[in-house]
Amino acid sequence: MDILPILSTLRRHKVIMWLLMLEIALSCAVICNGVFLVVQRIQHMDMPSGIAEHELVQIQQAPIAPPLDRYARAQEDLAALRQIPGVQAVGMSNQVPFGGESSNGNVMLSPTQPHRTLSAAEYFGENMVQTFGLHVIAGRTLRPDEYVDADVVIKALADGSDKGFPMPMLVSQALATRLWPQQSALGKLVWLTPTASFRVVGVVATLARANAYNTATAQYSMIIPLRMGADKDQSYLLRTRSEDRQRVIAAAAAALKRIDPTRVITHTRTYDQIRGDYFKDDHAMAGMLVSVIVAVLLITGLGIVGLASFWVAQRRRTIGVRRALGATRADILHYFQTENFLLATIGIMLGMVLAYGINLLLMLHYELPRMPWMYFPIGALALWLIGQVAVLGPALRAAQVPPVVATRTV
User: Fold this and answer.
1) Average pLDDT, the chain
2) Which of 31, 5, 21 is nearest to 307 (CA)?
3) For the residues 204-209, what does the mean pLDDT come to?
């Protein structure tokens, strides 16, 4: 179809033409950035934890009167929990992936370097590899005889002594790759303080941090063989079959209360609940963004319908003349579809520039990554499709104008 007559007609309605193009441009910018943010949220929520999520339960307790020997109490508790039918492994940990409450340490590759290399999650506790269901992909797991009471290590650090160091430790694959790219991490030393060094004896495939805000560093984790004892900062972890989790939680809470009736069970949760709580804000934000995108598409579509209907009513006489001169209904239909396509295309081009500018602002103020180019054609296709669907009704009504009736209005 020759577009010159269309452009000539549009030049006589500049105000309305620009209003429609600006509406499409704004919609394109919102849709491109909105879809990008939704995908970011979904990818964040799908972040792997590295553990057997559907088999794990957590019990957190707080003794009213601290035990005389918190290490002995922890061993008594662990022994009782292992006796519960259906329990496959029992451990303790100061944190769990996506648990919210985090413990992190500064990692250095030399005891004399002035600044840290990076920060990584510190997992302290007992039997975490087996209880979490972690996959050791290089080296070995920690042996029972390598665990040390936390008080011993704390005293050594306070005295500035390096006795007992280096201690063995496990690191995640992401942390190993970041610290020693293209090299094996096994046998390498890291320092958490100038006197406390740790030797890597094994690498686990994945272990997420408790507070994984930054996707790039979310998998930087270390497992250190420290026994922390039974206190409020440690939680008991039990691994069992998925269908046994609620029964095991009830039995574990009862077992702990039998040992110390005065203690308070502060949290009993499956890991699915822990993960759901951590990502609930991301889930709500993704839902809100999807609602905004749908609302923008709907408003844009209604705007196109209204404008197209207005133009059809205004051009009824012109349409009649064209029909009388031999234009078919298909020609009239294609005329309005082509006109909408041209306006949408110009609006989309403006919208892509606006979308890029908005993305730069988001990168500057909210530390978002650069939006990949693939989101621009997504926005363009959505608006072309909405435009063609929206203009179809008014265009069909225009095509139904009979030539005889139209010519009577000349």
Assistant:
1) 89
2) 21
3) 96
Helix, strand, coil share of the chain (percent; to 5): 55, 15, 30
The amino acid present at 199, given as its one-letter code, is R
The torsion angles phi and psi of 402, rounded to 5 degrees, stand at -75, 145
**Smallest Cα–Cα separation from 379: which of 344, 406, 404?**
344
Q: Going by C-beta distance under 8 Å and a sequence separation of 6 or more, which residues neighbour residue 278?
A: 98, 99, 100
Alpha-carbon 12 to chain mean position: 49
Residue 405 pLDDT: 58
Q: Give the pLDDT score at 2.
A: 67
Two structure tokens written together for 147? 């665990």
- Residue 64 burial (10 A CB sphere; 0-12, 13-18, 19+): exposed
Residue that is written with structure tokens 């296709």 in the block: 381
The rounded distance, in Å, linking the Cα atoms of 20 and 183 is 58
User: CB-based contacts of 25: which residues, under 8 Å, 6+ apart?
Assistant: 347, 348, 350, 351, 354
Contact status, residue 131 vs residue 232, Cβ threshold 8 Å: no
Four-point Cα dihedral 249, 253, 254, 256, nearest 10: 140
Whether this model's pTM surpasses 0.90: no
196, pLDDT greater than 60:
yes
3-state SS class at 138: strand
Across the range 96-111, mean pLDDT stands at 91
Question: Omega before 166 cis (within 30°)?
Answer: yes
Burial annotation 18-33 (CB, 10 A radius, 16+ → b, else e):
eebbebbbbbbbbbbb
CB 189 within 8 A of CB 199: yes
Question: Is the pLDDT reported for residue 392 higher than 70?
Answer: yes
Q: Is the pLDDT of residue 148 over 90?
A: yes
The pLDDT assigned to 410 comes to 45
What's the average model confidence in pLDDT over 178-199?
A: 93
Contacts of 160 (CB under 8 A, 6+ apart): 195
30 SS3 class: helix
What pLDDT shows up at residue 332?
85
Contacts of 358 (CB under 8 A, 6+ apart): 29, 33
Note whether 27 and 297 are within 8 A (CB).
yes
Task: Give the pLDDT mean for 179-203.
Answer: 94
Residue 221 tokens read as 């984790």
Contact indicator for 258, 82 with CB cutoff of 8 Å: no
Nearest to 319 by CA among 336, 342, 307, 306: 336
CA–CA distance, 101 with 211 (Å, rounded to integer) = 7
